[in-house]
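Anyone up for a design puzzle?
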């Protein structure tokens, strides 16, 4: 019988795909707009998951020119990132921000 994967492993495997990552982040962003403050932290957690899936936090920190420890704190789910940091992360991950 095949051994089951842990959910986090499964998630990261799928988030390595750019289109999957974009859909995941859009869903998290939409959810964060509709909920309370706790729901608003979902986007940061989702962003951390995508970062881990696409090379890791350390690699993203270098690419975005952000300190690694600062990035871990920012994406902790309780972080309070500056706008510049979020934009730098998105650009480093090949993402665009749009409002509709």
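Challenge accepted. My sequence:
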């Amino acid at each position: 019988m095949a051994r089951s994967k842990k959910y986090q492993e499964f998630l990261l495997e799928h988030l390595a795909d750019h289109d999957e990552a974009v859909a995941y982040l859009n869903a998290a962003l939409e959810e964060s707009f509709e909920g309370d403050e706790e729901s608003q932290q979902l986007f940061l957690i989702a962003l951390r998951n995508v970062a881990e899936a696409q090379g890791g936090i350390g690699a993203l920190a270098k690419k975005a020119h952000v300190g690694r420890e600062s990035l871990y704190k920012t994406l902790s789910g309780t972080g309070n990132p500056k706008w510049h940091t979020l934009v730098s992360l998105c650009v480093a991950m090949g993402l665009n921000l749009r409002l509709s």
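A detail worth pointing out: Residues 7-92 form one domain.
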